[in-house]
Design goal:
Structural class: alpha+beta
Strand order of the largest sheet: 3-4-5-14-12-11-6-15
Number of strands: 17
Pathway: Cell wall biogenesis; peptidoglycan biosynthesis
Low-confidence stretches: 1-41
Distance between the termini: 40 Å
Keywords: Cell shape, Cell wall biogenesis/degradation, Peptidoglycan synthesis, Signal, Transferase
Helix content: 25-40%
Protein name: Murein L,D-transpeptidase YcbB/YkuD
Shape: globular
Radius of gyration: 30 Å
Pfam family, one: YkuD
InterPro entries: LD-transpeptidase_YkuD-like (IPR052905), LD_TPept_cat_dom (IPR005490), LD_TPept_scaffold_dom (IPR045380), Peptidoglycan-bd-like (IPR002477), PGBD-like_sf (IPR036365), PGBDSf (IPR036366), Transpep_catalytic_dom (IPR038063)
Largest sheet: 8 strands, mixed, barrel
Strand content: 5-15%
Length: 556
Amino acid sequence: MTSAKKLLPLLCVSLILSACSSSGSNKQFVVVPPSESQIESSVKDQVSLTLNAFTPVAGQALPNQSVLEAYKNRGYDPIWIKDKKINMSIYKLIDILEQSYTHGLNPIHYHTGIIKEYLTLKQPTPQQLAEMDVIATIALTSYAHDLSNGRYEPQLIDPNWQLDAPNNNWKDLLYIDSATDMVNSLPLLAPRSPQYQVLQKWLVYYQDLAQKEKDIFVNAGVPLSAGDEGPRVAQLRARLVQLGDIRFSTRKVNEEQFDIRLKKALIRFQQRHHISADGAAGSKTIEMLNVPLKTRAKQIAYNLERWRWLPSELEANRIWVDLTNYTVDMHLNGELTSMKAVIGKANRKTPVFKGLMTYMVTNPTWRVPHRIARENLLPKLQADPNYLVKHGYKVYSSWSIGAKELDSTKINWKAIREDKLAFRFEQEPDEGNALGQYKFMFPNKNEIYLHDTPAKHLFREEDRAFSSGCVRLENPTEFARELTKGSKQFNDMNNSLKSGSNTVISLPTYVPVYLVYFTVVPNANGMLEFRNDIYQRDPLMEEAMGYAAFSARDSI
């Protein structure tokens, strides 16, 4: 008799089955153990059968393979049946899976209805017990993976999103001996970032509010401002109460009067929605006010998934390029230094990824990327053959190291097609150099880096998506100083700046760099900021994360 067959009669000797509630029932159903000839299936057989039948929605094959390995490791012992009884933690598992929507995940992916059906069987067969055990383990594993690493593959949603930092903590869960300990460990797999935790609480708030109340919308009309009166002012006040910008108060107010308290609340709303904070409800403000609660909940869910694509714990020392906020935050040695940034324009998106900053260059030469040379530089040369001379550029015959320098004024630029441009262009270090005095390097396949810029006026703009993909810094000197202070490299940097020499300086400590993209973030007061989706990435998340049932015919 195989170990699996020896085991299966024990699965059925004494099972505690209850109604499908988290508390369970006091009733016990004793099942007569079947004879060996009645055993139709073993857990081993059922693992492969059920894994094929319950491939997770959206094609998550990775968790299923881990289920198979875990059962092999335990000699195909059941996970949810111990000492001839069903482990009561399976009911807690169902509760957790049914609450997965509070993390922006979809409970339909975790088979809770099917597990409940098995638990209501008064005399389950060995095959049914094996099926239940495997399906419950698939559900636990899929949820553990999704909560820890995110459910979706970011690059399948957006090829420009290259930041995915999977960990194996969720796999370790499957090798815990006790099913109870497995279930109790599930919540620990969620990202530990305080921002994730605040976002999750707001998601629950918006979900509950959308269920309990109807959206309070502000009717379209002329802009509303301080001193106005009428029913639209009452709508505005009620909406700001609903969204949390006005705290509920027992103090009596004239609901239809636009007073100073209402104006201050509206300014707070405008600030956290990145619109002009003038305290008046114009068309843009009313449009933002009237975004349905359910839509806002979805946006929060998208950003929770983005957090799950990050490492579960971030390094204490890091550089955080916040693309939707147009800022760069340096977290170094317990101190925070922040500055404005210019990022890639919509048709030249700055990608999302992680790098390691290893060196900087003072007085850098700018080697013009081929795409920018074709799309930007060539049209300017065709309009003005002296453009390179005027702006401190050199041109070389090719991209090879020994390429010959050419006289740009003797080239017939108008005769050169964009797809035939093979020259290399370099801009010498000077005040007009596109990279300014500094270039900060974290080598990556995207050829993205942080740098200085002569175009300082762009930092006065609210929306700063103007570059060709790289990130321009408002205060590069401060940035360089923070990276090198207290080290020999600090003196090397100052000497090279004084001499005007083009110098590569290795950093005393390598620093991880995160280029991140969030459209909903908690602000310093714990309220939510809803930012402009400058690269239109939320619709891609909606398409990937939206679930719609389909017929069997459509699935073939």
